[in-house]
Amino acid sequence: MENSLLTILLLPILTAVIGSYLTYYFTNKSKRSEAILRFKEEKYSNLLILLQGFVGKTTSGETKKKFFEEQYKSWLYSSDEVVQTINEMVKLVIESRGKEPDPEKGRKAVGDIALKMRKDLLGKTKLDFKDFQYTDVIE
């Protein structure tokens, strides 16, 4: 009789405690994931805007400098694929230093960076590098 009374009292309390802990754990995990996603989205958008320093009429030494400052910071939060793709673009920039880079390789490098960022944030995409384009603003 004591066992059944103990079970009747203890089981609901134990279930409530475990349920509360699980709810707390998964809520915190969800909030943390959401905060990380927002942070990455903000940082990736900064990098994307600064990529304009490498493209067409928007090419700018100052913008490139800011891009490289952000790129160094991106090692802390970017996926491996994003870091590797940025490194490929940097390699292209270094190789073409002092001469006009191949426009198609440049478009691919910049488009691939945008694509890898998109995949890191969304998980998957059907787009490819050709779908990403910068538009030069004509004065």
Q: Kindly provide the radius of gyration, computed on alpha-carbon positions and rounded to a whole number of angstroms.
A: 24 Å
Low-confidence stretches: none
Largest sheet: none
- Which percent band covers the strand fraction? under 5%
The overall average pLDDT, rounded, is 86
Helix/strand-derived category reads: mainly alpha
**CA distance, first residue to last residue:** 89 Å
Percent helix: over 70%
Tell me the series of helices and strands, N- to C-terminal.
HHHH
Number of extended strands = 0
Shape: rod-shaped
Count of alpha/pi helices: 4
Quick summary of this structure?
This protein is an all-alpha fold and 139 residues long.
Describe the structure.
The protein is mainly α. It has a domain at 37-131. Helices cover 71% and strands 0% of the residues. It has four helices and no strands. Helix 3 (80-95) packs antiparallel against helix 4. The termini are far apart.
List keywords for this structure.
139 residues; mainly alpha; 4 helices; 71% helix
